[in-house]
Amino acid sequence: MLVSKMMKQLTTTREERGQAIAQLGNQIQRVDDYLYIVKSQSNNGEYTVYKVDNEWLCDCPDNTYRHLICKHIFAVDFSLSMRNHIEAKVISPINTETITECMYCGSPNIKKYGLRHNKSGDLQRYLCRDCHKKFSYNVGFEKMKHNPQAVTTAIQLYFSGISLRGTVRSLKLMHTEVSHQTVYNWINKYITLMKSYADKITPNVSDTWRADELYVKIAGEPKYLFAMMDDKTRYLIAQEVAETKDQHDARNLLRMSKDLMRTQPAKFITDGLLAYNTAYKAEYCKPQEPKTEHERHITLQGDRNNNKMERLNGEIRDREKTMRGLKKDASTILDGYQIYHNYIRPHEALNGKTPSEACGITVEGENKWITLIQNATKAKVSEE
């Protein structure tokens, strides 16, 4: 009875230690689905945890000689549970027909205050008795002459690959007469708004990231687009435009990715470009921090190819061809494509999910653009 109780206490202790290792971050390196490397907590060594016939084994003394489930196996189990468990983040559309509180201060002490007339129809106006501000609850589309459906249809058409003038022709079928400059103004306004909102959302990305660069033309000048993407979910984490390829300082890309995701990867996959290795050593190999593995010898065939990044590059290339090169203000278009790629466009490789859905972020509503714009506007108003 006493021996059984002691064994149970030891098991609990190893389990707790394994959980602590998994929660430290970057103590566990994934080689593949059946092989993991766990850093020793007492020295600079490491242990190999591997699966044989659906059983996890470890080369540490506890498992090899005592045949106990060691803390390293528990750590891998907890790491897998943490990675597979996706914390749901739901972004829901805002019901503009049942208004119960002020959009500025949140007070329920509001009253109707006449109607506002525009081309898309009449909107009820409200007055808050507490902050004394007037508002019409057309969240995100206040003071717009055209209805939200027309605006978001234009954004959808453009990032689907239709040119500005082609988008204008399509809007005429919806009885919406606008110029191509108006469409661009809509894109510029709402992409800036949504990008600020999206950057505050932390997705559940995997522990393996990929980076690659793409040759593009901006205002007729040759540039390079450096991008970071999550390997498992294909979530486009960060991107930046560089003047050159070989001499570009990629540290900002790695730093920005780490800040946005609030972590750094266990594995970082790139081609052999020296800029990545230099940035990797500066950002992901800092003293007193867990070290990231850098896999930098990509081959055309086999498991070490970079096909996932090449697929993303192809999407951006298709968009660039429609535009005949990016214009001077390329940042808005690239930011917009990042939002389109992550939150709007379903991917066959993800079983019809968007990368954001694969990361546990669900955008609800028939029109996801409207949902994003509404929530981005509400978040901005709250901050002000």
**Strands, count:** 14
Helical content class = 40-55%
CATH second-level architecture of the domain at 208-328: 2-Layer Sandwich
**SS content category:** alpha+beta
Principal-axis shape: globular
Q: What is the CATH superfamily label of the domain at 208-328?
A: Ribonuclease H-like superfamily/Ribonuclease H
Mean pLDDT: 83
Taking the alpha carbons of the first and last residues, their distance comes to 64 Å
> Under CATH, the topology of the domain at 208-328 is which?
Nucleotidyltransferase, domain 5
Strand order of the largest sheet: 11-10-9-12-13
Summarize the structure.
With 384 residues, this protein is α+β, with helices and mostly antiparallel strands.
What does this structure look like?
It is a single chain. This protein has 384 residues and is α+β, with helices and mostly antiparallel strands. Among the domains are: 2-84, no CATH class; 208-328, Ribonuclease H-like superfamily/Ribonuclease H (Nucleotidyltransferase, domain 5). Helices cover 40% and strands 21% of the residues. The protein is built from twelve helices and 14 strands. The chain has helices spanning 2-24, 61-64, 71-84, 148-160, 164-172, 180-198, 251-261, 274-283, 307-323, 330-344, 355-358, 368-383, and strands at 28-32, 35-39, 46-52, 55-58, 89-91, 110-118, 121-128, 134-136, 208-218, 221-230, 236-242, 267-269, 293-295, 361-363. A five-stranded mixed sheet has the order 11-10-9-12-13, sandwiched between helices. Helix 4 (148-160) crosses helix 5 (164-172), helix 5 (164-172) crosses helix 6 and helix 6 packs across helix 12. The protein is globular, with a radius of gyration of 25 Å. The model is unreliable at 1-10 (pLDDT under 50).
